[in-house]
User: Fold this.
Amino acid sequence: MSDPGYVIAGWSLAAIVLGLYTFRLARNIRSAEHERRRARSESDSESVSEAESASESESEPGSESTE
Amino acid sequence: MSDVREARDELLAPVVRRGLGVVTLVALGALIAFGLWGAPPDAVQGDAQRIMYLHVPSAWVAYLAFFVTAVASALVLWRRTRAPVWDRVAGASAELGVMFTALALVFGSLWGKPVWGFWWAWDARLVSTALLLFLFVGYLALRRIPGDSVGAAKRNAVAALIAFVDVPIVHFSVEWWRTLHQRATVFNPKLSPEIHGVMGLTLWIGTLAFTLLYVYLLDRRYRLAVLQADQADVELEQAILDRTRGSSAHV
Assistant:
C-alpha cells in the first residue's frame, strides 16, 4: 500500500470520532433518562405524601371546629 | 414555544431505530471492506484515493445536515408550523453538520498531503468550507445563549438561514472560480458521475452508510435535546417551588 500512514490515519480518525460521538450520545441519553425517571418518582412520592397529609388533617377530629 | 404544544418525544419509532442501527452497521462494514480492500488503488493517486471514500460522504452528509437545519429553521419562522420539534431538529442536525464538515476538512487535508504535496491551500472550496464550519460553530454557540423559547428559536432560525447561504457557495465554488480542488465527481452540473466500477460502487456505499448514520445520530441527538429540555423544566419548577416555600416560611 502506497502512503499507508495517511490512509490509516484517515480511517482510524473516522472510527474514533464517529464511534466516540455515538458512544457519548448513547451514554448521555441513558443518564438523562435515568435522571428523568428519578425526578418523576420523586415528584410522585412528594405528591402522594402531600395528599396523605392533607387527607390526614381533614380526618382529624375537630380540625374544622378549631377555625 | 407557547402557541404549539410539544408533539414528539422521539423522531423514530423504537423498532425503526433498531432496524436502522443494524442496517447502518452493515453498510459501514461494507464500506470498510470495499474502501480498504475491495476497491483497487487509483492509477494516479495510489492508495491515498481510499481517503476519498470518507471525504466525499462526509462532505455530502454535511450538506444534507445543513439543508435539514435550514428547512427546520424555515418551519420555525413560519407561524403555522412553529413548534419546538423543528428548533430541536435544526440544532441536532447542525451539530452533526459541524462534525461531518470538520471530518471532511481533515480527510481532505490527509488526502491533499500525499497527492497535492501540502495540507492546506487558500483555495475557494477549502476556504468556503472552513467558513461554513465557523458559521455553524457560531450558530451552535448562539443556541446556548438563554432567552424565552419562542424568541430564542426565531433568533436561531434566522442565524441558521444566514449561515446556510454558504452551502451553495461551497458546492459551486469549483465551477465559479478556478480552484485547485477538482470539480464535483458525482453531483456535477450534468449529474453524470465520473467514477465507475468498484471505485464508484464504494463511493456509493460510503455515501449510503454515512447518510444512514446521519439519520440514526439525528434521532439520538434529538432525543437527548428533548431530555435536556425536560430536565431544564424540572430544575426551573424546583427552583420556583424552593423560592415559594422559602418566602412562605419567612412570612
Q: What stands out?
A: The first helix of chain A runs from residue 4 to 59. Chain A touches chain B at residues 1-4, 6-7, 9-11, 13-14, 17-18, 21-22, 25-26, 28-29, 32-33, 35-36, 39, 43 (CB under 8 Å). Chain A is about 85% helix and 0% strand. The CA atoms of residues 46 and 52 of chain A lie 10 Å apart.
